[in-house]
Amino acid sequence: LGSRSLPFAVRTPDAATIEQYFAASSGPRVRVIDLAMMQIALEGATRHMLAGRPSGLYSYQTLTGARLVCQMYEGRLADLPPPETVRDENGFHFRIYTRGGVTVVFWQEGELVCVLASELPAPDVLALAIAKAMAPA
């Protein structure tokens, strides 16, 4: 995560523009999680392949410069390795992993696996995932 530049196909802080980009490109239907009220700004987005499957990836940056990366792809939580921690909240099953100071939270929304990763404190990353998980329409 850190300060490395991500290879965005579209750079914008506008969620509607990023959702239009995902709608116009091939791959799973990706929703953009709104974190603006928490003063966490969108940076940009791209489509890419993850383990041979198309995914949508977009990134945010906090006022302090911390980055959050969100990714959505068609898959199943059962395909992941055993997590360090699990949490069930609001009808969702969250799988939590921490590696090298980065917390990664996975949860299932219909056919999509959603991922939120950040160097923010683990409880903060989990709280954002819990707050933003939603059942598919």
List keywords for this structure.
single chain, 137 residues, alpha+beta, 8-stranded antiparallel β-sheet, 15% helix, globular
Report the total helices: 2
Unreliably modeled segments = none
* Helix share, percent: 10-25%
Instruction: Kindly report the average pLDDT value.
Output: 89
Q: Widest sheet: strand order?
A: 1-2-3-4-8-7-6-5
Structural class: alpha+beta
Shape: globular
N-to-C CA distance: 31 Å
* Secondary-structure element string: EHEEEEEEEH
Give a nutshell description of this structure.
This protein is of the alpha+beta class.
Structure, explained:
It is a single chain. It contains 2 helices and 8 strands, in the order E-H-E-E-E-E-E-E-E-H. By secondary structure, the protein is α+β, with helices and mostly antiparallel strands. The protein has an 8-stranded antiparallel sheet, covered by helices on one side. A hairpin with a 2-residue loop joins strand 2 (40-50) and strand 3 (53-62). The termini are far apart.
Secondary-structure map with pairings?
Layout: E1 10-11, H1 15-24, E2 40-50, E3 53-62, E4 67-74, E5 85-89, E6 92-99, E7 102-109, E8 112-118, H2 122-132
